[in-house]
Write a structure and sequence with these properties.
Number of strands: 8
Structural class: alpha/beta
CATH architecture: 3-Layer(aba) Sandwich
Shape: globular
Radius of gyration: 18 Å
Largest sheet: 6 strands, mixed
CATH topology: Aminopeptidase
Strand order of the largest sheet: 4-1-5-8-6-7
Bound molecules: zinc ion
Order of helices and strands: HEEEHEHEEHEHEHH
Helix content: 25-40%
Number of helices: 7
């Protein structure tokens, strides 16, 4: 084998997809769990399945607190939930955020606590998109229902926009059930065709702003802002500033219980929104 092939293999086994966790620090004894596709260039055919929620729309002011942990379908859905968090109006139509709910369709992502990662990322994504749109940002999503989207397709959606910030949403899982917490990864690599180093600086700054909000969530285990050591596709191949938020572990009983509550998912979306707002203002 050529040296670069050996190095590639060494790298592959040294790092794992976010939801297929390998050990990344001494705090958690990570081990392989089930599926994920952040890392792989998965270009399987698009498969459409039933939508999991109502179509995205502007947030209504009325609050509707709801715990929807075990709906009849066995899937967590947004239903007619509306946020009660206040929205800050800004004139930011020239700033486009692409919200990327991880997984979907034939790829449910991580499984645990009776939940599917793809459902949770979609709910957080829709709630975030609504807040951004109502606030005055240009916002779009890489998927609008429970549909499989390849990683290339997700980046392509952003390429077709004037994307100022790509925000990928994921949920973690690990065999070590004590692993828990929230972390934000930022774009840290350039490629032969993506050479603008300011993309890394801006991505790091956006991740810090989002992290500064997320770590304020009561009872959260804040794991920090981290470089993209795993060369995640949507971060590495994004020709725009990009971050990936791992919103907690559904393999942890306590965190899984919280993630099964739409109000908690809304709080996460609100913190991410506040972080994006802070990042936008600090540019
Ligand atoms: Zn994931």
């Amino acid at each position: 084998m050529k040296l670069h092939t050996i190095l590639s293999l060494m790298f592959f086994f040294a790092f794992a997809p976010a939801c297929v966790g390998l050990k990344t620090n001494n705090q958690d004894n990570w081990a392989f769990t089930t599926s994920s596709s952040e890392y792989n260039r998965d270009s399987s055919q698009l498969v459409r399945t039933a939508a999991v929620s109502n179509p995205p729309a502007q947030a209504a002011p009325a609050a509707q607190a709801a715990r929807v942990n075990a709906p009849a379908s066995g899937r967590l859905t947004l239903g007619n939930y509306r946020t009660s968090y206040p929205i800050t109006k800004v004139v930011a139509q020239n700033f486009t955020v692409v919200v990327d709910p991880g997984h979907g369709g034939t790829d449910p992502g991580a499984l645990g606590s009776g939940l599917r990662e793809s459902d949770l990322t979609f709910i957080i994504g829709v709630l975030l998109h609504r807040k951004l749109s109502e606030s005055g940002f240009r916002s779009t999503m890489t998927r609008w229902d429970d549909t499989f989207k390849s990683l290339e397709n997700r980046v392509l959606v952003a390429k077709n926009q004037k994307c100022d910030l790509f925000v990928s949403i994921h949920i973690n899982a690990a065999e070590a059930t004590n692993a828990c917490g929230v972390e934000v990864f930022h774009k840290s690599h350039l490629t032969r065709s993506i050479r603008n180093s300011s993309l890394i600086t801006t991505s790091r700054s956006a991740a810090a702003s989002i992290g500064n909000e997320l770590k304020l969530i009561q009872g959260i285990n804040w794991r920090g802002v981290k470089q993209d050591a795993r060369h995640l596709y949507v971060l590495k191949q994004s020709p725009f500033p990009a971050v990936l938020v791992e919103c907690g572990f559904i393999s942890n009983a306590n965190e899984g219980r919280k993630l099964g509550d739409i109000r908690y998912l809304d709080e996460i979306s609100n913190r991410i929104y506040q972080g994006i707002l802070s990042h936008y203002r600090s540019r």
